[in-house]
């Protein structure tokens, strides 16, 4: 039995993942499993040690999978499965390079789109409303004695009814956000992307506009794009200075799409009315970061997909992707390099 066990592909899981995924891996009988059984990230040195000679690696978004990790893993690594829809923590160039080199087998990459779309869209709407209707500020006032009497203009915010909502990067998540916002009587949805996405846009009757028009016309602007070299810091001074003074900026994609100094300036000088961020650079954002001093900035600790159902579904999908990849089968969700 010992010999049979040791001939199974070796898999390293870099974090305590929700039970569904773990169970799938354990019950498969297909792999020898080792995991970093903690809620905190595996120390880099430990990761570099543990990946050596692995066939499969299941990771989360805090692990940078770069040349160093891939070198440490060596030529046995066949499958990389991330429990996330975002893949900016994976060095795609290094993966491609290795796949092309003779010494390495092609490394297949799995990720977890779709299963988190509902949870992320739901949280985005919650964050948008918390920001535009100043919920965090209001709750704080109520609790700390700021609630004097009912006042005519106190804690007024901005409403969705009759507004224009702009989506930066229209994908599944952008569509799901718009579908949820529509019943709030939004007047118009607009979006921008590298090119028009007619099929998705039709689902929400969204109009394709330029980046400048998106900034100028949106009352609410939600960043829903993936972080890539092209979208790095795309939400910067140029965007914020074109936005209305009454507009709200929301980011549930990646902190890297925002230039945070420019955002701070825009919020502090009233160039825009407010921002709701579920993602920042770095994460966690240090508690002494200037953005935390602003009442018109609501910051959440990257929780958009954090529902029990969704996180379990993500872990199950990541596990199934990994197993399929190791068997040489089609993965449920494969990132084609
Ligand atoms: C992802 O999956 O990329 C999210 O940021 C976390 O769910």
UniProtKB/TrEMBL annotation:
Record's keyword annotation contains Plastid: no
Keyword match Ribonucleoprotein: no
Gene3D superfamilies per the UniProt record, alphabetical: NAD(P)-binding Rossmann-like Domain
A Pfam family hit: 2-Hacid_dh_C
Record GO terms (molecular function): glyoxylate reductase (NADPH) activity; hydroxypyruvate reductase (NADH) activity; NAD binding
Alphabetical list of PROSITE patterns matching this protein: D_2_HYDROXYACID_DH_1, D_2_HYDROXYACID_DH_3
Keywords: Oxidoreductase
GO annotations of cellular component type: cytosol
Domain D-isomer specific 2-hydroxyacid dehydrogenase catalytic: 11-333
Domain D-isomer specific 2-hydroxyacid dehydrogenase NAD-binding: 125-304
Family: Belongs to the D-isomer specific 2-hydroxyacid dehydrogenase family.
Protein known as: Glyoxylate reductase/hydroxypyruvate reductase
Organism: Electrophorus electricus (Electric eel)
Gene assigned in the entry: grhprb
């Amino acid at each position: 039995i010992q010999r049979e066990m040791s001939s199974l592909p070796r898999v390293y899981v870099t974090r305590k993942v929700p039970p569904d995924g773990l169970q799938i891996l354990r019950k498969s009988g297909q792999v020898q499993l080792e995991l970093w059984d903690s809620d905190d990230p595996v120390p880099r040195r430990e990761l570099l040690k543990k990946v050596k000679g692995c066939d499969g690696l299941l990771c989360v978004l805090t692990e940078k999978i770069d040349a160093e990790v891939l070198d440490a893993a060596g030529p046995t690594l066949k499958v990389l499965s991330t429990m996330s829809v975002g893949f900016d923590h994976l060095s795609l160039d290094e993966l491609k390079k290795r796949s092309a080199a003779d010494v390495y087998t092609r490394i297949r990459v799995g990720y977890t789109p779709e299963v988190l779309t509902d949870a992320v869209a739901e949280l985005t709407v919650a964050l948008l409303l918390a920001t535009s209707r100043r919920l965090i500020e209001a709750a704080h006032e109520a609790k700390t004695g700021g609630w004097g009497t009912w006042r005519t203009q106190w804690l007024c915010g901005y409403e969705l009814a009759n507004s224009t909502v702009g989506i930066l990067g229209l994908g599944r998540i952008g569509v799901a956000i718009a579908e949820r916002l529509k019943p709030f009587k939004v007047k118009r949805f607009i979006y921008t992307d590298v090119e028009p996405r007619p099929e998705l846009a039709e689902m929400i009757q969204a109009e394709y506009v330029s980046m400048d028009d998106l900034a100028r016309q949106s009352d609410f602007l939600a960043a829903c794009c993936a972080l890539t070299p092209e979208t790095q810091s795309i939400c910067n001074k140029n965007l914020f200075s074109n936005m209305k003074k009454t507009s709200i900026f929301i980011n549930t994609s990646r902190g890297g799409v925002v230039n945070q100094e420019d955002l701070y300036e825009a919020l502090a000088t009233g160039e825009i009315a407010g921002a709701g961020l579920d993602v920042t650079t770095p994460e966690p954002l240090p508690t002494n970061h200037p953005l935390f001093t602003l009442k018109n900035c609501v910051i959440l600790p990257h929780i958009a997909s954090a529902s029990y159902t969704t996180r379990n579904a993500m872990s199950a999908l990541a596990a199934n992707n990994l197993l399929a990849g190791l068997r040489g089968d089609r993965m449920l969700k494969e990132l084609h390099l």
